[in-house]
Design a protein that fits this description.
The protein is 67% helix and 11% strand. By secondary structure, the protein is mainly alpha-helical. A 3-stranded mixed beta sheet has the order 1-2-3. It starts with 6 loop residues before the first helix and ends in an 11-residue tail after the last strand. InterPro entries: Cation_efflux (IPR002524), Cation_efflux_CTD (IPR027470), Cation_efflux_CTD_sf (IPR036837), Cation_efflux_TM (IPR058533), Cation_efflux_TMD_sf (IPR027469), CDF/SLC30A (IPR050681).
């Protein structure tokens, strides 16, 4: 995986750093606001924001870690640090969502409803919304430029923005109707926004750690492309996995017409196969073992 020292990457890090500062400030405001107003929805949104802050920090760390070169002990570099961070983030999300659901349900069934101060709740939520929109606009450009890392950061802040809108609606309902349960209902909605993302994160972590074929990668299609390459007779022991998101690795044994090897065409064939994997399947690290026809009997039964 290429190390990114470009001005665009430096700009992305700057944008991420500013967005992290904005989100951190809003997080503190929401925690204080939840304590002063008694709003569970504000506390739920703060929990959501805490997790998203962790996600933004992971995204920032990924831009730095990805630039570190491999070593003799870390031959793939430190790219998998992002996956460990995502695992921690996913577990935090689950804990926050479960805690919010328990708190919201207990409030809904309680005989005496806790009083929520609607006006300061609304003020804090509006501050959160304005700050989140500012962070969204900051991250929009790099997210639109098809940076996977920055697009993930953009979605983190988008979730916070939706949470702030839910709190604003709940505060409006409390102020206009006195319906205190609106706070708990908004909390459940925020928990409902948190859980799918937690599931998605943990599913991707399991996929990487179990070395499953990356999402949207079709092994049958890769085999087809390899077999269509001139001089290739067969392919076996095909393996595709990911070091981290967007860093796919491929290996295979390719059975080749002996004439290709005898004529010194092995180097050109390897270049053609590597270019095919890189251009068609976004695989930057590929390893091929070339075998002359007649050795196909060595194929693994699990290939």
């Amino acid at each position: 995986m290429a190390h990114d020292h470009t001005p665009a990457a430096a700009g992305n890090r700057t944008r991420l750093t500013i967005a992290i500062g904005i989100v951190a400030c809003v997080l503190v405001v929401e925690v204080i606001g939840a304590w002063l107003t008694g709003s569970l929805a504000l506390l739920a949104d703060a929990g959501h924001m805490f997790s998203d802050l962790a996600g933004l920090l992971i995204a920032l760390a990924a831009t730095v870690v990805a630039a570190r070169p491999p070593t003799d002990r870390q031959t793939y570099g430190y790219q998998r640090a992002e996956v460990f961070g995502a695992l921690i983030n996913g577990l935090i999300l689950v804990a926050v969502a479960v805690g919010v659901v328990i708190g919201a349900v207990s409030r809904l069934v309680a005989a005496d409803q806790a009083e929520v101060r609607g006006t300061p709740m609304l003020v804090v939520a509006v501050i959160g919304l304005v700050a989140n929109v500012a962070a969204l606009l900051l991250l929009l450009r790099p997210a639109a430029a098809n940076s996977i890392n920055m697009r993930g950061a953009y979605l983190e802040v988008l979730g916070d923005t939706l949470g702030s809108i839910a709190v604003i609606i709940a505060a409006g309902v409390i102020l206009t109707t006195g319906f205190q349960q609106a706070d708990a209902i908004a909390s459940l909605l925020i928990a409902g926004m948190i859980l799918p993302r937690a599931y998605s994160l943990l599913r991707d972590v399991v996929r990487v750690f179990s070395e499953s074929v990356p999402k949207d990668t079709d092994v049958a299609e890769i085999r087809k492309h390899i077999l269509e390459t001139a001089g290739v007779v067969a392919v076996h022991d095909v393996h595709v996995w990911a070091i981290t998101s967007g860093a796919h690795v491929f290996s295979a044994h390719v059975v080749v017409d002996p004439a290709v090897l005898n004529s010194g065409g092995a180097g050109a064939l390897l270049d053609e196969l590597s270019d095919c994997l890189s251009h068609h399947f976004d695989v930057d690290h590929s390893t091929f073992q070339l075998e002359p026809a007649g050795r196909a009997g060595h194929a693994s039964p699990h290939a």
